[in-house]
Design goal:
This is Cobalt-precorrin 4 C11-methyltransferase. By secondary structure, the chain is α/β, with parallel strands linked by helices. About 30% of the residues lie in helices and about 20% in strands. A hairpin with a 7-residue loop joins β8 and β9.
Length: about 260
Amino acid sequence: MKVYFIGAGPGDPELITVKGQRLLKEAEVVIYAGSLVNPALLGWARPEARIYDSSSLTLEEIIDLMEEAVRKGQKVARLHTGDTSLYSAIQEQIEALEARGIPYEIVPGVSSFSAAAAAVRKEFTLPGQSQTLILTRRAGRTPVPEAESLAALSVHRASLCLFLSAHCLKEATQELATGYGLEAPAALVYKASWPEEKILYGSLADIADRAQKEGIERTALLLVGDFLRGRGQRSRLYHPAFSHGFRRKKDEASHHHLDETGS
């Protein structure tokens, strides 16, 4: 048996992956990030499963629970919000498990940035607009390298999704305005994919004030960039004048047809 780090998705219980749901149903022990993971997901767990909320536990206590279960031949489902590769603090758990010789596997999930894009009905990467997405956070108790400051990143004017910064939006928007400008379009998505999801639209000049009026101080993502205007060029992938390995452009297809028929 082993520990399974499972990306539980952004909130909607149906946005957990098929594999993640299967492993959650099979696990004898479930450890979930109670401050962020939707407790509705626990409905997939076995009635007799031992369930622990990790929000009140230390790393050492979490690893002890994992080790005890695996040594007994039990499967452990470790639920993290969104996708495990982003702001999930799994690396320190992985290193602790490896030090104790405990096997593990990582099961990716749907990130909240994907759910936020779906909520605002936009695509981060628009032809002729932006082909880069920046996922970042503002420095707080967890520092951020100086080269990755919001002011430094803003000069790229790429599509951007800001995590873990809803409590300091005023400062964050001022720093982002360095490169984007105050009139850059912005959207704040609160609890993306949850029943209480809320979306605020504005610009870097006013989105923080809008959030304050709504009382939003956590569990929200800030989206910034021209992709929110939805004015990119048409994709070449489906353009009739563009050919690729699976389709000839229309004039080529017509000539090919004429050659074959002799018309």
